[in-house]
Amino acid sequence: MGVKGLQGFVARVCPDACKTVDLREMAEKHRIDHPDSPPVIVVDAMGCVRHWYTPEFWVCGGQWREYLAILEDFIKVFMAAGIKLVFYFDGVVEEKKREEWIKRRMKNTEEIARLFQFIKTHRKQPGREMFVLPSALPTFTRYALKSLGQETVCTLQEADFEVAAYGLQHDCMGILGQDSDYLIYNTCPYFSIENLRLDRLVTVMYSREVLCRVLGISLTHLPLFACLLGNDVVPESQLEGFWHKCLINSPHRNNSYSRRTNILLSVANYISKIPCSYSSLRHLEEMLPLGSDKTLLYRGVSSYLLPGQQSPWIPPNITNCQMLSFQQQSAFCQDKEIFQVTCFLKTAFNPFSIQPIFVLGIAPTQVQDLVLGPVKIDEVCTDHLSNLSRFLGLNPFPPIIPSFFFEQLAKEQHIQSENYSIFNILSNGEIECSNSLEDDCDTEIPGQALIYRPARQHIYSILLESGKDYPLVKEWFVYSGNHLKQPDLIQPVQPSVTGGTPNLKTLWLAKGPDVEKQRYNTLLACFHLQEEMEELQALEAPVAGFCCLLAYLMMQVSSLSLEDLNAFLALVLCLKGKSAAQLTGLQLAQVDPRAVHLGSVLIRGLTTLLMANSACGFPFKMDDLMPWAVFDGKLFQEKYQQSHRGCSMEELLEGNVRTVNQKKVCIQVCVLESHQVLSCSSKYVFSSQPHFVLQIWVFIRFACYVTERSV
To answer: Which family does it belong to (predicted)?
Structure first.
């Protein structure tokens, strides 16, 4: 969140603290000053996604191929300048920030309601002033950057702390983001993403030293300054009385400034006049109405101390819990057995195995001998399995593996952005999901949080492995009518898997074709599709994943029509041959609000599929479940509107469908047990009765006819 108003204050009142810099020149200077280390910029990615998403259309569910191309171009510019980028993403919502997270979600809900009202009135996308991030954009940005070969970190605590710590410890050239907390941390330079001009690679660098000179304080005062203005630890609501006293006694009060600007100046004036000591901090804590927790200021100041740093406001013998947590995360595991098993698993079960990865080559008796090198997965599995077997004296795994081992593995994958939400569930039994572009007034389509809850319940059951005595999982999910006063407590439910649900040891550690089949079947069981494995495995992986979601949606949402089904099928079948440039050129005469809603539901379904895939040991490659493989917002709008206008199948499929896959897709998606799919015109009813299969074959034969004509 940062310090409210500080960024604007610096721009208006301290213009000398905002220096335009050329990043190419700074990189060259960094090479001279640090000949042994390349220039690195650590990126606060959560603060950048809004600036990265520049496709014209954002309301239809996401222009994912366009966005992927934009990210690739962004990376290429920095690579051409010899600058390495390291991307950090928030991996958790810390308890101290839950209240602020909820406030933002409620505000976003209001913004989305206004957005849908605009679309219904004007049948078009509003201007950028009403911009809302496409659903799940930060999640898929993480995987996009990883697929582009970038170092991507998902944090275990608040990202700004880890970003600042990484920048300091690795002597980085700077931090790229848009968060005023980077003016408070005593770390490497802070660059603005908002002011970045990518074509020239220039931006604004904010100077902490100039800011301090204007405020009349020193760098060591900044953490207390942030706390006394209100931040994520110290609520603003408890500081109003203190601000009033500061304003009365401040010589810097200026009627031409806003009240917030005067508060910043007067608080700085107050701090400059008190001794810089722990006793002064204690006096402030006694003076302020901090309620029952008189340690808020201490905790707030401590939260800005990075590893190796001390503050005169904090006694040197008191350990900063946040710093300790960070150091523990960074340290190697000292247990040799767990360390070696974890290293093996990070190589043998890496879901991004199509990319070169760094493998830890460890001798069985010498954990210290680390050999780093880019190796492809197939080259290392056999050797590491052999080493692991010799080391443990087992063939190849012990009969019982402690549960904390799986949590440790999930943690490693979480940090490296290799799984989705698994560590949060295993470590805290808690999960959250932000707003989606959903129309709360459309009561015929449930919120995505409710649509996918049955699937999540099966995923929780797989992960928690507690038989009938599953612990409840806390869900903080945004949906209509949920004011987030407390989490929903969700009971895990075992999926229906023939022979019983495999345990994590089997799903995550075992090898062989039978295990691969178990993984795939268990994932399908999460979506109630375990009987359809043979048909789905015959499809290309991205199409199979898409059809898995579509079949599940048709079962869960009774209001979905034949026209909706045709639109989704036409989307996935026509998307494959289209480039980002072609999709950019696609023009829409209007925007349909229901299609906006459905597109968002589908995208959130992909995140549920990622979670299931992670829990089941990665039967799919994660790259095959990404939205740029199966979805485009504008194309879906076009197919949706064509289908609901009654366009012919030839027009809907663009005369370019492969008949075998078309046949299998239709049978898999449409023939659902005990479910009817009605046409909006009510002239046709698709059901699972025998005559429905005949209807499907008519559809298939027509697709064949279209294809033959196109050839």
So the answer is: Belongs to the constitutive coactivator of PPAR-gamma family.
